[in-house]
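chain below, 145 aa
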Amino acid sequence: MTPPVVSVIIPTRDRPAELHRALVSVLRQDLVDIEVVVVDDGSRDDAEVGETVARCRDQRVALARLPTSGGVCGARNRGLELASGRWVAFLDDDDVWAPGKLSAQVSALGSGGAGEWSYAGAVYLDERLDVIGRQAAPGPDELRG
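prediction:
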């Protein structure tokens, strides 16, 4: 079996509603060659996270559980251990991705001009998902310091 192009790692803890929204935004990406690794970082009610993942009804989504909280870094590291994709994308459980975001980044990576990693700016949304702000991605000169 060919590994997926992108492994999406989503750490979560006690936020099933936010996790559901994040998962929907990932599964609606036009890049279908993905796997999604949800890492439950010691939720008080781990059944909620399991039910949220099961509601997706998508075999590309896997769930891993940490018995106690290792923090977001511990959850991301566990996700990395399980990831099999060529590229890794991190998504916090309270964030969502715009349609086409992942394919645009993979395209940039495939063009050779992006090097070995990619990043993007941010759009800030309110609880109704209306845009309330934007932050442009820093340019290469800004990243060099």
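The mean pLDDT is 90. The CA atoms of residues 25 and 130 lie 15 Å apart.
thats it, cya
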